[in-house]
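Next up, sample data.

:::
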Amino acid sequence: MKSHRNIPFGYMMRGGEIVLHPEESVAVREIFEMYLRGMSLKSIAAAMTVPYNTDKFLWNKNMVSRMLENKRYTGSDGYPPIIELEVFRKANEIKLRKAALCICTDEKKKYLHSLVSGGSSLTESEVEGLLVSVINRLIAEPKLAAPDKPQEYAPTAEITDMEQRLAALMHDVTVDIDEITRLIADTAAAKYEQCPYDNRDRTMKIIDLLTRREPLDTLDMELSKQIIRAVHINKGITAIELVNGKMIT
């Protein structure tokens, strides 16, 4: 007959009262101790020797994670305490830091991948090191961010394609007015973005952000997002494009 758990692991009912389970309560303490010693959720689950249910011995990291978050083990909600409140707090502080680190790491990976064009073989750490190096060069000499010469307008392949689609639709008597209106707006926006201008405002913003900054030891993603548009790699040559169009090789 299967046994389903109605109260948290670590406890049992005796005489109508919730009391500590001799073996399970010891396992709860061990779980918190192992986590505070730096063991991962998966490693802790693999180390467990007390079955979670009588019909289900195997543990997984999600079970361990939920137990670490269960404040009843400190004596709340009428449950007898198994661990001290300070132990619970320390364990959950570690959990929050690890979760934040994972989120930060994932965001950084996505950001670094989004910057690179040209079929790069660079690793994430190499791209990060490249960005830090360029930003530190700019911090040392902010005027490097100024464009070398005025930009000339050159429509991108995307803009050319949009213009061709628009020309074709203009001669189509069955065209959906909403569709052509959207395409006109999208084409205008794309051409405006590509339109040449001296980028003075963007250049001054970059210089303002870099002036009096201390050199970076690690990548400042927010600063990088405000000054770097892309990383271009072509025939072994790497160039960093700033948001004002300036290319730094």
Summary: The first strand starts at residue 11 and ends at 14. Strands lie at 11-14, 17-20, 116-117, 228-234, 237-242, 247-248. The CA atoms of residues 45 and 63 lie 8 Å apart. The mean pLDDT is 81.
